[in-house]
């Protein structure tokens, strides 16, 4: 007797002449797996043609080779479709880092192909020197993401702006470098009318030092109760203290306006003086 064609194997093939369609009793056929696949452990790759013209039980299985977990990516992470043959891993960088290299690797017959990319820190431009102060020294090749730069001023100079700025994820600084200036304000003259200074008596003030005012009893304050020494060595305008009576303006109450009456040959009634009443004027207090 003879056996017919041997059974097919997923992801593998019989080690025979594929044009042969019949096999004598006693023929033994070995199966092999395609590239990227291996015989499952404990499964025999052989079958035999038996006297009843049938093949012995077919238990061969080809399994995809595993590439194992992809390599870790410093300052980044990855996502995979699979870690066996045919799988793809895609790499990503954390905020503030740029990916250098190819962002994917494929699981091939003998592991992950190509080289694993790296995540390099975003860099910011060098900082210019500031006049009358010190720019922090660069302790590495470049200013990198999340690096902090802290500035100082020479004695007698005041720092205007942010003392510390940071390199951001988009490669720009969180603020412009500060300035070092001589700032000295003097107490405004004349003093506030109908009020007094209750804090910050001066007479000289440094940058951002404040004067706080309070109005006398019976007077209401218009404006902020404090002023601050600015970087131009000047204070803004002080608040005003207005008497409670003068600060309250009573609105004039009027009824709804009546439509003008037009008489042929005469001006509309709203343009003619009333014979029984004099024109009225609104009286109010205008505050400067």
TrEMBL record:
Residues 279-288 have a biased composition (Basic and acidic residues). It comes from the Eukaryota. SUPFAM superfamilies: Complement control module/SCR domain. Keywords: Disulfide bond, Repeat, Signal, Sushi. The keyword Flavoprotein does not apply. Gene3D superfamilies: Complement Module, domain 1 (2.10.70.10). Residues 1-64, 65-121, 122-182, 183-243 form the Sushi domain. Residues 249-288 are annotated as: Disordered. Signal peptide: none annotated. Disulfide bonds join 124-167, 153-180. InterPro entries: SEZ6_CSMD_C4BPB_Regulators, Sushi/SCR/CCP_sf, Sushi_SCR_CCP_dom. The keyword rRNA processing does not apply. This is Sushi domain-containing protein. It comes from Callorhinchus milii.
